[in-house]
Task: structure prediction
Amino acid sequence: MRSSTLFRCALLSASAFVLALFVAIPSRAAFQQMPAGQGRGGGGIYPQTEPDDNAGFIPIFDGKTLSGWDGDPRYWRVENGEIVGETTSEVVVKENNFLIWRGGTLKDFELKVEFRMNGTNSGIQYRSSELPSTGKWVLKGYQADMDFTEGYVGNVHEERGRAPTGGGHVVLSKRGQVTRVVDGPKYKVVGTIGDSTLLRGAMNVNGWNQYHIIARGPVLMQFMNGQLMAVALDEDSQHFAAEGVLGFQMHVGPPFKIEFRNVLYKKIQ
Result:
């Protein structure tokens, strides 16, 4: 009898607690009636947000000519408002080369570029330097990688960079990772963005895609179609590049076509 009484008392206490909790917590409808930005403590901890826009960006391709750009005319042309790079079985690429923007030097910046490709490999070179001793229109430096098979797309790549074997290519941060690039030879993975295989799906194969690159000091961020793909924190004192040129890659390999449009640039002060 005593245990039964204790159970009933405990049940009543629990019921009272649940009732008090229910009264204390505002209903969903009450939250919906709160002014935007308010909630916790009346001041609000979640500011209102909206989609990013192109404020402060300027177009650096006029849509009609390659004015301000410099590249091998065998591969590059303007067609239907787009920069077109193309190779054929007759016009073959023997060494990676680039269409270089001559309008300025990139330091801290943002770049938004739409691209479409039908094969092989390409990339957007940034904060890069020219290698005239190797060949005309040849660059080395950071690259937002892209390839038709999606194996490398999204990687923070370095063309002709600090590869362990020297003078080759190296991935500074793999798709899906935030990587601290140190003096090497090993780099440090700070964290992950997502599964590398699943992130391949961010690219629209055979369709248009947007690359959005943000470079602030040693922090390099690469987005594709709004999805963060990779981040490199370049803390390698010997190889870090604070500035350099912009270029679009013409890659060796089978014939292919790469198109660029809506090239928007913003200098970060």
Notes: The helical segments are 2-24, 28-33, 196-199. Residues 89 and 165 are 32 Å apart (CA to CA). Confidence is low (pLDDT under 50) at residues 1-32.
